[in-house]
Design goal:
The chain is of the alpha+beta class. It is 24% helix and 37% strand.
Length: 104
């Protein structure tokens, strides 16, 4: 039981996982670095990478509202990107992710 002046060491915020696949002109335009900056500003965990088919794939975990903000950023992309679509899959968080960063 918490006493006056004590704070809980856990969060009751539900953590979810967002898996996204971004299509369009999204490689060679700073898209991954753009997404890393957005994810860091939101405190998310996960990764982003280029795929051989020209798309960009990402996985992120955090509170749903922050993941939705990341998804909005992915749909917008950096100024030189041309996003034609973002395929998403939502699920419960499974953990095992570090601070959001590039992966290969």
């Amino acid at each position: 039981m918490l006493e006056a002046g004590m704070t809980a060491t856990y969060s009751l915020t539900r953590v979810e996982r967002l898996h996204g696949l971004v299509r369009g002109d999204v490689q060679g335009v700073g898209f991954r670095f753009f997404l890393v900056r957005e994810a860091h500003s939101l405190g998310l965990r996960g990764w982003v990478r280029n795929r051989d088919d020209g798309s960009v794939e990402f996985v992120a975990e955090g509170p749903r509202n922050d993941l939705e903000r990341l998804l909005e950023a992915a749909r917008r992309g950096p100024s030189h990107a041309r996003v034609s679509g973002v395929q998403t899959e939502w699920s419960s968080a499974s953990g095992g992710l570090d601070r959001f960063d590039l992966t290969y």
